[in-house]
Design goal:
The protein has 698 residues and is mainly beta. 3% of the residues lie in helices and 52% in strands. The protein is globular and about 70 Å long. InterPro entries: Beta-barrel_TonB, Beta-barrel_TonB_sf, Plug_dom, Plug_dom_sf, TonB-dep_Cu_rcpt, TonB-dep_rcpt-like.
């Protein structure tokens, strides 16, 4: 068993239940399936409120097939997502999404290359390319980089068992609705502290049918692999390097554009040096670089209804982190620095075939955002059952737009419109080099009321700078335009979290978490109506600051009723309001949850899960007075899934089941924003589907 921890602190939580982990972490039960996870840590790790860690195994027979990591995240309490097809799920945690969430994949961050969010970071991490998924809901630590006001998603791959010279795994599955299939293979090798892992998978799906039998554009192909090599010392030191490549092709989306290809390539290195000094215990560091190339158009995978359109975009990210683990004045302390730089460019083309080489817009005009942060976090045990954690960070941000004055070769609405000309038309400003200094921090208290019940509470401030789209997208003109605001202020989130956890015998656990978040300078995507400092009233999508309130409750738990029966469930509710207009914040998930009952003999199991959501009546649907980002007041819905497993044929495990057994026609309230469409689009979920999967370890 490896002694390497997840970056920073090793947190082991199950279904939101918090455990103080000893040097070798305790076993835990996952919310959605009964399993045992052993994760060793080099030192005692503190509990982190509102966190869950889940095994991410695409061959897990207890789980229905998931063809995309964002779809897998939907099964974690407190996580929602929107879809525009079968790929590109956009995770939402506590009513926040996109750059309000931080995604760290094996120590690296990447940013998608699609201005319309066809490729959020989680969609580029294939199921099977990580062993565990940790979801931190809300702002619970300053050590995971800037922003992260809504939460952090940690995708991590563990090194192989050093006691096994050769090991591996194989998995495959099929899904009837859309003829989806996925296959993966991984091989691990180790000798004398050195190890190597190679993993690859291939996934395909055609368009599925919703509950009414209507075809939904959702097909895609995805193939990729990872190579990991490393060395571990007996004292817990390690050094690891990895390479990855991923390609998504023929991705169909609802709206005016599809994505014929998205390519991602990346490299990373990380390590830890154990010092074992009186004050300094260890030093951890990481470095990464990746590139995403993306193409979307309206003609490769469909017949265009008018002019041919294409956008070619890329996103280059490089970053790193250095942190010291200290025993400082009787506190468990982490001090460090991190940094990242991201450059995005996107060129929009429009014309007639066979030639389509005239630039219509510099949609992302060579926007670079550099961020460097300093952070520190300490935990002090005040008494045997009372702990105080305090942390702070300062982030320095510098942004540029190298092609803000680049002149397109095609006119838009009778003029050659540069990005700066659009900024001046809508805001009266140009994109100049911009610098920010952002301060954040937190204070958290945890109290063990009994050996099974823990109370927690915390106050935090986190600051998120505007991303490349909010700050500088420049596409179109008039009602179809999207124009970023170069002078937009960063969001300041001030959050109060209060919660409690309970751990019973065996698999019993429960949690409740409440939060309220006052946001100053909330960045709102709105429609141009000649207000908020906007100079035009043509309905273009613009960005401005407002004040907002976000609050909610999360409850969940699991319990073994007998030796054979267990029940598990969770529910989450989020409330969002624009404090300046009094309107609901758009894209807030309604009250939703799940309830499952499982009969498990150890050799085989059968179970069922109800998923449900209430009507979302607090919707921002009218673009004449609000943003219009919500398609409708979405009706409530309920679905039933059945599943079974057979594990008697070791090392082979078989899973089977039916999703949406009653063939309900429904859609999640969350919808993807319009990119080039005049209106946002809400996509129905799949109807009934039968699946079969098989996995084996050797």
């Amino acid at each position: 068993m490896s002694k390497r921890s997840l970056p920073g602190r090793m947190i082991l939580c199950v279904t939101g239940t918090l455990f103080a982990s000893p040097a070798l972490a305790e076993e835990a039960a996952d919310t959605n399936q009964l399993l045992r996870i052993m994760i060793p840590a080099p030192k005692p790790a503190q509990s982190l409120p509102a966190s869950t860690i889940h095994r991410s195994d695409p061959g897990d027979p207890d789980r229905a097939p998931v063809l995309e990591t964002g779809e897998f995240l939907r099964g974690i309490p407190g996580v929602s997502s929107s879809r525009a097809g079968g790929h590109g799920f956009e995770p939402v945690i506590r009513g926040q999404q996109q750059n309000q969430l931080t995604v760290i994949d094996n120590g690296a961050q990447l940013f998608g290359a699609c201005p319309g969010r066809m490729d959020p970071p989680t969609s580029l991490a294939r199921p099977g390319s990580q062993d565990s998924v940790t979801v931190i809901r809300g702002y619970q630590t300053v050590t995971n980089g800037p922003g992260a006001s809504g939460g952090t998603i940690l995708l991590d791959r563990q090194p192989p068992d050093l006691d096994e010279p050769i090991s591996g795994s194989f998995w495959s599955g099929v899904d009837s609705n859309g003829d989806g299939s996925s296959t993966g293979l991984g091989i691990d090798a180790s000798a004398e502290g050195f190890y190597a892992s190679i993993e690859g998978s291939w996934t395909r799906s055609n368009s599925y049918e919703d509950g009414a039998g209507d075809k939904v554009r959702s097909g895609f192909r995805q193939v990729g692999g990872d190579l990991l090599m490393g060395r571990e010392g007996l004292d817990g030191s390690f050094l690891e390097v990895g390479l990855s490549r991923d390609r998504v092709s023929d991705a169909l989306f609802n709206g005016m554009m599809d994505s014929p290809e998205t390519d991602t390539v990346g490299g990373r290195a990380r390590g830890r040096l154990m010092v074992d000094g009186e004050t300094l215990r260890s030093i951890e560091g990481s470095f990464y670089a990746n590139r995403v190339d993306h193409v979307m158009d309206n003609y490769s995978l469909r017949d265009p209804s008018g002019m041919y359109m294409k956008t070619v975009a890329d996103s280059d990210t490089m970053g790193g982190r250095l942190a010291a683990d200290l025993d400082l004045l009787d506190t468990d302390t982490v001090l460090g620095l991190d940094g990242r730089t991201n450059n995005r460019q996107a060129l929009g083309y429009m014309g007639m075939m066979p030639t389509l080489n005239s630039v219509r817009t510099y949609s992302w005009p060579d926007i670079t955002i550099n961020e460097v942060g300093l952070f520190g976090e300490s935990t002090l045990p005040l008494t045997q059952d009372l702990r105080l954690t305090a942390g702070a960070r300062v982030d320095f941000v510098h942004t540029t737009a190298g092609k803000a004055d680049a002149v397109p070769t095609t006119m838009v609405s009778g003029a050659f419109r540069t990005a700066n000309s659009l900024y001046r038309d809508y805001y009266g400003t140009s994109y100049d080099d911009h610098t920010e200094v952002n301060l954040g921090g937190l204070v958290r208290v945890e109290k063990d009321v009994t050996d099974r019940i823990t109370l927690n509470g915390g106050l935090s401030r986190s600051v998120r700078t505007a991303d490349a789209t909010e700050r500088g997208i420049a596409s179109g003109y008039g009602a179809a335009a999207r124009v970023g605001n170069p002078d937009i202020d960063p969001e300041k989130h001030h959050q109060l979290d209060i919660g409690a956890t309970w751990t019973g015998a065996d698999t019993a656990s429960a949690f409740v978490a409440t939060y309220i978040n006052r946001v100053d300078d909330y960045i709102l995507a709105d429609r141009a109506r000649g207000e908020y400092g906007v100079l035009r009233s043509d309905g273009a999508m613009i960005y401005h600051n407002t004040d907002a309130l976000i609050a909610g409750v999360e409850v969940g738990g699991a319990h073994a009723l007998t030796d054979l029966w267990r029940v598990e469930g969770s529910v989450a509710w989020t409330y969002g309001e624009n404090l300046e207009s009094g309107l609901p914040l758009p894209q807030m998930p309604p009250l939703s949850g799940s309830l499952g009952l499982i009969y498990d003999t150890g050799d085989w199991s059968l179970g069922g899960t109800l998923h449900a959501a209430t009507k979302q009546g607090r919707a921002d649907t009218d673009a004449t007075v609000g943003t219009g980002q919500d398609v409708r007041e979405t009706p409530g819905w309920m679905t039933l899934d059945l599943h079974g497993t057979v594990t008697t044929f070791e090392p082979v495990e078989i899973g089977f089941g039916v999703t949406n057994l009653l063939d309900a026609t429904y859609a999640h309230h969350l919808n993807k924003p319009a990119t080039f469409e005049p209106n946002d689009i809400q996509v129905n979920e799949p109807g009934r589907s039968v699946y079969l999967r098989m996995s084996a370890r050797f």
